[in-house]
Amino acid sequence: MKELDFIYKRKSVRKFTDEKVHREELMEIIKAATHAPSGKNQQNWHFVILNNKEKIQEIAKLVEDKTHQLVKTADDEIAKDLMKFLRYHTLFKDAPTLILIFAGPYKLSAYNALISAGKVEEADRLLETSTAIQNVAAAMENLQLAAAALGYGTCWMTGPNFAAKEIEGFLNFSKDGYHLAAMTPLGRPLDQEIISPQRKDINEVITIID
């Protein structure tokens, strides 16, 4: 359907031109992100935006250093895996803008009710839904769709989160109860012909109950 074309414009972009992201468009992209749904409308997200390329590259260096640090104490198989994905964990280093999304706490009253009722297993299962992260994920999806609609490229990233402590320290960003959840580079795609990976057949991922 033509009305849904904006969805299919979104691709995972890993190479960018040097063109800066226009501030007005950047603000529109973030505004679109904040219009995502969130449980109880808690909007437990915060966006840290970096437009300084030197600082972006410094964050990539932090991820690289943490990788090499972990490799020293990991067994051969794990070390090999860490090094294999290092270039993917730092692909944001040449983007003109980096957006880091922080997730805040989410008040889950049903959890406390289940605990009070002695239903610990059900309470633990409720936590598995990770509502706080679902809210942030919805915002990220809105952000990426808006960016694509304006001709920008993004790449949803959680791989660098193992260096979250170092990244948060470098940013000197602190908001009570918030932690780094994901990040995305933002910029004009260097390659306009980006092919999406194969998707599972729709019949494989649905169950219809009439």
Automatic annotation (TrEMBL):
Residues 7-188 form the Nitroreductase domain. SUPFAM superfamilies: FMN-dependent nitroreductase-like (SSF55469). GO terms for molecular function: oxidoreductase activity. Pfam families: Nitroreductase (PF00881). This is Nitroreductase family protein.
